[in-house]
Amino acid sequence: FCTPCLQECLKPKKPVCGVCRSTLSPGSRALDLEKQIETTETTCNGCNKKMYLSKMRSHAASCSKYQNYIMEGVKAVTKEPLHNTRNFPNRFTFPCPYCSEKNFDQEGLVEHCKALHTMDAKQVVCPICASMPWGDPNYRSANFMEHLQRRHRFSYDTFVVGDYDADEDDMMAQVLMRSLRDK
């Protein structure tokens, strides 16, 4: 994970797993994983030298052939035109529609509105729904607080695996298949 994503997951109020978003509780070191990293061999993609995974990071920092290997990959990727990121809506952080405070994740927006705007009756557009392909950016909810508590008790990312354009029936089928696999 990159640092900004990890920082978001480790917020002091609600640290969550970066993959499944379940709440993290204080735990112990993953000694079995540490041992696996210490005993698993790998090969440097630059110089083909064999080493343990635990040594790979320091080796990669000093291996000029590995640096060249990385730069070749960067050049190959940057030759293709970059996607215009303005065409992709931000589905990770949202402003409060009442006070315009910014950068809430979905759960944070729900908590913020419950704490500060429970009695605000102003009709507002749900920023979470407006960011979705099926959302109407002009629709003003008659009871935004009830909408938040009913529709946004969970993150869409839990059920939508990167394909926000899939129709509801396809998503439901995927969720049901995943729930059967998880048993």
From TrEMBL:
E.C. number: 2.3.2.27
Q: Catalysed reaction per UniProt?
A: S-ubiquitinyl-[E2 ubiquitin-conjugating enzyme]-L-cysteine + [acceptor protein]-L-lysine = [E2 ubiquitin-conjugating enzyme]-L-cysteine + N(6)-ubiquitinyl-[acceptor protein]-L-lysine
Share an example GO biological-process annotation for this protein: ubiquitin-dependent protein catabolic process
What the entry lists under InterPro entries is as follows:
Di19_Zn-bd, RNF_E3_ubiq-protein_ligase, ZF_C2HC_RNF, Znf_RING/FYVE/PHD
Q: Where is the C2HC RNF-type domain?
A: 44-63
Going by the UniProt record, its keywords in alphabetical order are:
Ligase, Transferase, Ubl conjugation pathway
Describe which pathway this protein belongs to, using the record's wording.
Protein modification; protein ubiquitination
Determine if Ligase is one of this entry's keywords: yes
Coiled-coil-forming residues are none
Pfam families reported for this sequence = zf-Di19 (PF05605), zf_C2HC_14 (PF18574)
Q: Which GO terms describe its molecular function?
A: ligase activity; ubiquitin protein ligase activity
Record-annotated membrane-spanning stretches: none
Xref: PANTHER family: E3 UBIQUITIN-PROTEIN LIGASE RNF114, ZINC FINGER, RING/FYVE/PHD-TYPE
Query: What is the name listed in the Swiss-Prot or TrEMBL entry for this protein?
Result: RING-type E3 ubiquitin transferase
